[in-house]
């Protein structure tokens, strides 16, 4: 799970809780643990054990990602506690209707 999380964060992708829990269950099934359920308690202990926290990326780096904007990126993401996060520019397009 930690290896997958590290690879995803290297791409600066935003990671939310339901995604982490689903990935944990998928990995458990691949390991033959069909009865594993990523409960809230497991999730909170896992975050604490791996030093993962939920933060809001700040700053504006790079161009606005139009494709990601259409898919409604979450404002916050899970990151390692010592990891620097970077935000993205938001699109400034506007539409005026009379």
Automatic annotation (TrEMBL):
Protein location: Nucleus
InterPro entries: CenT-Element_Derived, Homeodomain-like_sf, HTH_CenpB_DNA-bd_dom
Domain (HTH CENPB-type) ranges: 1-56
GO cellular component: nucleus
PROSITE patterns: HTH_CENPB
Alphabetized GO MF terms: DNA binding
Keywords for the protein's UniProt record, in alphabetical order: DNA-binding
Primary localization: nucleus
Pfam families the UniProt entry points to: HTH_Tnp_Tc5 (PF03221)
PANTHER family for this protein: PROTEIN PDC2, TRANSPOSON
Listed name of the protein: Tigger transposable element-derived protein 4-like
Organism: Sipha flava (yellow sugarcane aphid)
Name of the coding gene: LOC112682974
């Amino acid at each position: 799970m930690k290896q997958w999380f590290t690879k995803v964060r290297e791409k600066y992708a935003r990671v939310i809780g339901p995604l982490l829990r689903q990935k944990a269950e998928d990995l458990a099934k691949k390991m033959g643990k069909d009865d594993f359920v990523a409960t809230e308690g497991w999730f909170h202990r896992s975050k604490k054990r791996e030093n993962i926290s939920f933060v809001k990326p700040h700053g504006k780096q790079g161009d606005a990602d139009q494709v990601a904007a259409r898919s409604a990126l979450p404002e916050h993401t899970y990151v390692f506690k010592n990891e620097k996060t970077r935000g993205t520019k938001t699109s400034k397009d506007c539409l005026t209707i009379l």
